[in-house]
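Need residues for this backbone.
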């Protein structure tokens, strides 16, 4: 077996050096302080906790080993990394059979290029492990490319729309479940996740949290 990051021979998905580097870059280890309310890592008590104020939790910054693994998965098509990235989500939150996972969908162009929807695959792995329900609620707007817009434009233009023909049982999960998690890989402006969260809250009156791998 080879290390998924440095490609050195090892017996696990990551060698001991890369595993230590990945853990070291996490906010959990980078920040010594903890929120007095939720217990999640924070940079400073002078700043509001993103989990308490924005319902947002990220594993770490978009750099180093973490950025390399996400890029290898998304752009390099290394599908086996989906299991490792699912591990990182489980490190942040313990999902269970009362949870609903709503993955942010890949763009049509991105899915066509890489041949799979990266967050849907991770969500399905988490579902198989924990019993959480996966709801494919959103799809990207087909007109224009959201990623090419300016930051100001991205915050205004709706990046997603609800899919047609969402199953009634999935709508039921969203309306009844108390733990709905929007999953994404990289959080940049936050417009896409914010839109998904607002739609879920307004349409389904759900309690929604956003969980991402990287915060750019």
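Answer:
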């Amino acid at each position: 077996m080879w290390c998924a990051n440095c490609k050195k021979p090892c017996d696990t998905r990551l060698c001991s050096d890369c595993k230590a580097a990945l853990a070291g870059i996490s906010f959990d280890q980078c920040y010594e302080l903890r929120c007095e309310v939720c217990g999640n890592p924070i940079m400073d008590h002078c700043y509001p906790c993103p989990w308490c104020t924005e319902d947002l939790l990220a594993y770490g910054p978009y750099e180093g080993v973490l950025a390399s693994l996400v890029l290898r998965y998304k752009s390099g098509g290394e599908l086996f990394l989906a299991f490792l990235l699912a591990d990182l989500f489980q490190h942040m939150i313990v999902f269970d059979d009362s949870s609903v996972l709503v993955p942010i969908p890949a763009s049509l162009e991105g899915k066509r290029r890489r041949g799979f929807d990266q967050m849907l695959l991770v969500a399905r792995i988490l579902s198989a492990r924990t019993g959480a329900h996966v709801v494919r609620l959103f799809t990207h707007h087909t007109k224009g490319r959201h990623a090419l817009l300016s930051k100001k434009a991205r915050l205004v233009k709706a990046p997603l729309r609800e899919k047609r023909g969402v199953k009634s049982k999935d709508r039921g999960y969203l309306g009844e479940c108390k733990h709905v998690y929007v999953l994404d890989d990289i959080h940049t402006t936050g417009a896409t996740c914010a839109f998904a969260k607002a739609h879920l809250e307004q349409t389904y009156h759900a309690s929604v949290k956003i969980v991402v791998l990287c915060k750019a």
